[in-house]
Design goal:
This protein has 152 residues and is α/β, with parallel strands linked by helices. It is built from five helices and eight strands; from the N terminus they run βββαβαβαββααβ.
Length: 152
């Protein structure tokens, strides 16, 4: 993988959120938790809090390919809880109130590396970096980041 940029989170941002669909009345007898496997540390960062909240109920972790995969798993009923970036669920909640319930939050928001396949050309990598440099500040803030640092 080739690192293209590092995204620095907004100061004071929470890192991860454990979420479920708001208004679901069914009790959690088994915790089926989808998490974005590209952020493998997501499971580790929130596992202790999940264990405490589950209070002995069975927990099944389900790795999916992305945050979108987490929301898809929740919507399809394959998972009843999901782990996503707090900034993601905060922006979705602002746009669609009463859709998501935040069960727990944990940790400070980490910096995220934007990586690309080593197969992309140097010119393509340079184009991505140029595009990132032109992102409006408000778009970054809404996504939970305060700055992007391009990597050589």
């Amino acid at each position: 993988m080739r690192r293209l940029a590092t995204l620095i989170p907004n100061a004071g941002s929470s890192g991860l959120a454990l979420v479920r669909i708001a208004g679901v009345q069914a009790p959690l007898t088994q915790w089926r938790i989808a998490y974005g496997s590209p952020y493998c540390s997501a499971k580790d960062l929130i596992a202790d809090e999940v264990t405490r909240l589950a209070a002995g109920k069975p927990i099944r972790w389900w790795p999916v390919d992305s945050e979108r995969g987490v929301f898809t798993a929740l919507g399809s009923g394959k998972a009843n809880l999901g782990v996503v970036r707090s900034a993601t669920v905060d922006s979705l909640t602002a746009a669609m109130p009463h859709t998501w319930q935040i069960v727990a939050r944990t940790g400070p928001a980490p910096a995220w590396d934007l990586v690309a396949s080593p197969a992309i050309t140097r010119e393509q990598g340079a184009q991505v970096r140029d595009d990132l440099a032109t992102l409006p500040k408000q778009a970054l803030t809404a996504a939970g980041f305060r700055e992007i640092t391009a990597q050589p």
